[in-house]
Design a protein that fits this description.
two-stranded antiparallel sheet
Length: 108
Amino acid sequence: MTCEKQSNFKVISLPRLNGLTPTLESTALKLMEEAGELAQAIGKFRASSGENIKMDEKEVVDMMARELLDVAQVAVSMMFVLEENYQIDLDEKIRQHIEKLKAKGYLK
């Protein structure tokens, strides 16, 4: 993984994983699993779910960061599946996404 700063962008590059043959369906299910683990880190370990689990704030935030990267990795893997198995032009989709963000006022 690499991170670099470009004007108002922080570019995070995540790798294509080796030795996997994910389908769109298996990747979507894995994405939901990882999102659930992120939700657990946010809710359960911040006592938002009613459970009283004692964790230091730094530990909780570190766990959230790790789980969020798992979500991001699976999302990137799903994009590779779309590109390789369904011939989706990711460069074009990213351009469209950035234009959408600009139109909503999130980017200049």
